[in-house]
Design brief:
With 340 residues, the protein is mostly beta strands. Helix content is 7%, strand content 44%. The longest helix has 24 residues.
Length: 340
């Protein structure tokens, strides 16, 4: 009987500790090493997110191996060999399961956009309700960064594999840091840094999301904005972006528009708190609305480690709305449970 009571106490204690660990793990801690459900570091940089049928899919650059600075470099274009685009899935935004490399490198063709010697950045995936296809756009680049094009791939499943269709310059304009946005009416748009990153293009896409329609706007001309992250709230469109300082952090900027193809007005830096003027030593990549939570939008950032890109970390912060004032306050850690 004593032995049985002893084991019961041990089991109860272990259960309590596990419960405490589980509760503590339901916090988003900035810049820490985030692990997937298999205990491996989450490797999804320059990322985007898709919410589909109750599941969040997190896509990003899978950076593996040595970070190099090419001998010819005239700027800090640190890079790793192209490995591909990774995908992780979650139902709660805390526990992420690695679904694999959903668009992989093409190792046997040096001329291919996805050859390890090239550059693959900022993959974004959206679902097309008309074609029932998952469509990926990404920045594809030559080793010397002269290509400045968009690459497109499709899949029947959010977890791939994605079939690469090729690359082009949307509306014959350069396309580097980019994101995708699907409006409430199903129309899709690509936002891309263009004209040597001096101008932000908004390119309307065809109904299948595979090509530009030819309708576009030029925004923030000669302001050199990159890393666009776009969201919509209460009928208005918002864009977070960064300045162009390579891998080094700078001040974020928030802009607003009443129409996605209309005039965009600059609001200013939305970040507040510790190191806000450096965007918390991170760079914008995406904004994800949390389903089931009223007005909870997560601003996703990359905290780049330019000399060891595989070890770059993540910063996710809730956006705060106070009438017309929008801010992204610094929080060392936070929980979704803090929000209704």
């Amino acid at each position: 009987m004593v032995k049985k009571i002893g084991w019961t106490i041990i089991a109860t204690t272990l259960l309590t500790l596990l419960t405490m660990c589980s509760t503590e793990s339901r916090n988003i801690v900035q810049g820490e090493l985030w692990l997937d459900t298999a205990g491996n570091p989450i490797n999804a940089h320059g990322s985007g997110m898709l919410y589909h049928n109750g599941v969040y899919y997190w896509y990003g650059e899978y950076k593996k191996g040595e970070t190099i600075l090419p001998e010819w470099a005239t700027w800090e274009c640190y890079r790793t060999d192209v490995t591909g685009v990774s995908c992780y899935s979650s139902t709660d935004l805390y526990n992420w399961t690695f679904e694999g490399i959903v668009l992989g490198a093409v190792t046997d063709d040096p001329s291919h956009d996805l050859h390890p010697s090239k550059v693959l950045e900022r993959p974004k995936v959206v679902y097309n309700a008309k074609t029932h296809k998952f469509v990926m756009w990404a920045h594809v680049e030559s080793a010397d960064y002269s290509k400045a094009a968009a690459g497109v791939a499709v899949s029947d499943s959010p977890t791939g594999p994605f079939t690469y269709l090729g690359s082009f310059r949307p509306n014959d304009a350069m396309s580097r840091d980019q994101t995708l946005f699907v409006d409430d009416d199903g129309k899709a748009y690509q936002f891309a840094s263009s004209e040597h990153n001096a101008t932000m293009y908004i390119n309307e896409l065809t109904d299948d999301y595979l090509q530009p329609t030819g309708r576009y706007t030029r925004n923030f001309i000669d302001m050199s904005r990159e890393a666009p992250a776009v969201f919509k709230k209460d009928g208005k469109y918002y864009m977070i972006s960064s300045g162009c300082t390579g891998w080094d952090p700078n001040q974020a900027q928030l802009a607003v528009a009443d129409s996605i193809m209309g005039e965009w007005s600059i609001i200013g830096d939305p970040c507040t708190g510790t190191n806000a003027d450096k965007t918390f030593y991170a760079q914008s990549t995406y904004v994800q609305q949390v389903h089931g939570k009223k007005d909870l939008y997560i601003a996703m950032f990359d905290r780049w480690n330019k000399t060891d890109l595989e070890d770059s970390r993540y910063v996710w912060l809730p956006i705060e709305f106070d009438n017309d004032q929008i801010t992204i306050p610094w929080r060392e850690e936070w929980s979704l449970d803090d929000f209704e």
